[in-house]
Write a structure and sequence with these properties.
By secondary structure, the chain is mainly α. It has four helices and no strands.
Length: about 120
């Protein structure tokens, strides 16, 4: 059961990261134009964290020691950005961006907890 849960967490991390890179790159290149206000720094953040998420997926799949650290960095990053969107940028951020960051944050909390639990139980 442990292997299935860890592998599933790795796959989710990889897919979420890949989607962020693909969609963000399309927005940055101008091939995808949204009909709402786009914060370019947020798109760049999402692409960067998407790439890191792909790497995290690999680390989780291979059960590498750094998987917990990288998962924690991604989780804290997403929650920090979410807080800034809800406070500092609340008047300019699109609802879609907030919803996407809530989703990412929740998924990464679960991934982090899975990695922490199964890393701790195998140590």
């Amino acid at each position: 059961m442990k292997n299935i849960i860890v592998k599933l967490a790795a796959i989710v991390a990889f897919i979420l990261g890949l989607l962020a890179v693909i969609m963000g790159t399309r927005v940055l290149s101008g091939s995808l134009v949204q009909d709402y206000n786009v914060l370019m720094w947020l798109v760049k953040y999402n692409v960067s964290m998407g790439a890191l998420s792909i790497f995290a997926g690999y680390l989780i799949m291979k059960e590498k020691a750094k998987a917990l650290l990288v998962s924690g960095i991604i989780t804290v990053g997403h929650i920090s950005v979410l807080i800034s969107l809800l406070t500092i940028f609340s008047s300019v951020v699109a609802d879609q961006s907030v919803k996407a960051m809530v989703f990412r944050s929740m998924v990464w909390v679960v991934i982090f907890l899975v990695v922490r639990k199964y890393r701790a139980s195998s140590a």
